[in-house]
Design a protein that fits this description.
By secondary structure, this protein is α/β, with parallel strands linked by helices. It has 5 helices and 5 strands. Strands 2-1-3-5-4 form a 5-stranded mixed beta sheet, with helices on both faces. The longest helix has 11 residues.
Length: 126
């Protein structure tokens, strides 16, 4: 299988994807990913953003698609990896109406706060 144990939502657990993904491969770019990973670590939630060097083999494809959001490949990869919730930083989202429209077309807004917007990923294809 191409994902860590517990990923995929098959066991009823939430699988999160955080946007935006790091813009490049520098250590500094991954600070936000590490912070979000630590925030959900104790909650028993899986993320597809990678964590502590334990990325699934398909992570490179997922990361490349996420850097080019919006695109159909990213939606397909989220579904392939069993993503149940997409959490988007509100700041970058506000500057990208095309991304917000793409998210609204595919997912269901579940929460909007001052720092982030959470979308539920419905079962099945978009």
């Amino acid at each position: 299988e191409d994902r860590p144990t517990g990923e995929g939502g098959d066991d009823g657990r939430e699988v999160l994807a955080f946007l935006p993904f790091p813009p490049d491969g520098s250590v500094e770019s991954y600070a936000g990913t590490a912070r979000r990973m630590l925030q959900v670590l104790d909650a028993g939630v899986t993320t597809v953003n990678g964590y502590s060097g334990l990325w699934p083999p398909s992570y490179d494809r997922l990361e490349a698609a996420a850097r080019e959001v919006p695109n159909d490949e990213l939606d397909a990869l989220f579904r392939e990896h069993g993503v149940t919730i997409v959490v988007v930083e509100a700041g970058p989202l506000a500057s990208r109406p095309d991304v917000e429209a793409w998210l609204d077309e595919r997912y269901v807004e579940a929460f909007r706060g001052p720092d982030s917007v959470a979308y539920e990923v419905p079962a099945g294809p978009a």
